[in-house]
Amino acid sequence: MHSISALTLGLLLSLSGCNPDNAGQGPDPVDQVAEPTEVGTPQGAVVSKHIGPQGGTLATADGQVELTIPAGALTQETTISIQPISNHTPNGVGTSYRFLPDGQQFSKPATLKFRYSDAEVVNSAPEALGIAYQRTDKVWYNVPGKSLDKQKREVTVPMPHFSDWSLFENFMLVTDPAKDVLKYGESVTLQIMELAPLTETKEEPLIQRTGGANNGLKWSLVGGGTLKPSGSSATYTAPRGPSNPNPVTISVELNFKNNPTKLILVKELYIGSGFVKVNFLGKDYVFSSMAILDDEDPTNASIIGATPKEVLQIEFSNGRKGSFPFWYTAEGNKCRVSFTLSPSQQYDSGHDWCDGEDMVASGQVVFEEYVPGKYVKGTFSGNLIKYDHQCTKAGPAISGSFFVMSATALIPGI
Fold it and tell me: d(Cα 43, Cα 64) in Å, to the nearest integer?
């Protein structure tokens, strides 16, 4: 099998001893006007139903969205459709949906119901969820009259017309997007961002606002480094050596005037070279102490997550933003993925030695962002093949994500 070079492994093992001092900048100033977004593109199958003046109900196949049209809302039988689309809503949650025919008006408001999962509100709270729709100017507007059922995990609003509709998080704790991973000793500013009033009384555009109508903010930090709050923002400075735990967790509790709602917003920051997350053989792995991008030679580059016993490696050549299929070697527009759990448990994305036939697993690596010599962010999914099973393309499923810094960016001068 291919193996990590001694130089790369040495870099991984030596990261804990390197303490470059390079303070970061806070996030860019926040826009105080509503910004148009892209229009979503179809992402799945359309569901349709004929509904007339008697009314009726239509739901997506997975039950995540349900539309109820009351009797008298339509004057004639109409083909009603729901199309899943890509979500470009500010701080959108899950999938957006296009309701057809576009622009359809109702004599009586329909009822739109979104269901959410616990994972979708893990960094916020169900009370912060809202529903918005996109107008023809491509700006998203929140919808008043929301009701929340936490037991059933449902958010419901009256729906007067059709358009593109989405669930979104009203509050979030934000940093510069490139600051999910901090170098040792680096600083970053976190801010509370509000998109719309917590208690909606009218339709309002989703506008990113810092602060918000809250008081009694309570900031907290779990992990190494220091946190200095200042109203609705706080400055975090990473430790000058490895953090335990990694990532560190920063949270802020929001209490509102004349409103009993309490929200806790959460942000995780990785310290050091970044992270590689993997789900394989029913187990989750998180590599953060030893995770790095080795792309000093762009034709022979790697993303590596490792412990003394386990190594996940994604090999690629001349990387760039985009999607690349699994292959038995890293060449052209293809990636080689390998995962070693022990000497007897070695898996990879393919072999080229089975009676002249290539055995290649199914899967792809997606580079969402890639700045050579600095960092790479992305995901991977597919299956891997047991290394000693030479003549099969089948194997266990693997999936994961990564955000890793280049060794040259993390440790200047190497």
Answer: 14
Structural domains of the chain ordered from first start: 6-20+273-410 (no CATH), 47-169 (2.60.220.30), 173-271 (2.60.40)
Q: How big is the chain, counted in residues?
A: 414
**CA trace torsion 166, 168, 170, 176 (10° rounding):** -130
410 sits in which H/E element: helix 407-410
pTM score, whole prediction: 0.65
Joined tokens for residue 46:
């359309």
378, 363 contact by CB (below 8 A)? no
Antiparallel, parallel or unpaired: β 204-205 and 283-287: unpaired
Query: How many Å apart are CA 270 and CA 244, to the nearest integer?
Result: 10
Q: Which two tokens stand for residue 88?
A: 């470009």
284: left (phi over 0), alpha (psi -120 to 50) or beta: beta
Q: Which region holds residue 63: left if phi is over 0, alpha if psi is between -120 and 50, else beta?
A: left
Quote the CA–CA distance of 118 and 193 in Å, as a whole number: 21
CA distances from residue 209 to 15, 26, 89, 232, 291 in whole angstroms, order as listed:
38, 16, 15, 11, 35
The pLDDT tens digits for 134-175 are 999 999 999 999 999 999 999 999 999 999 999 999 888 888
pLDDT tens by residue, 52-87: 999 999 999 889 999 999 999 999 999 999 999 999
Of the candidates 125, 97, 130, the residue with the CA atom closest to the CA atom of residue 206: 130
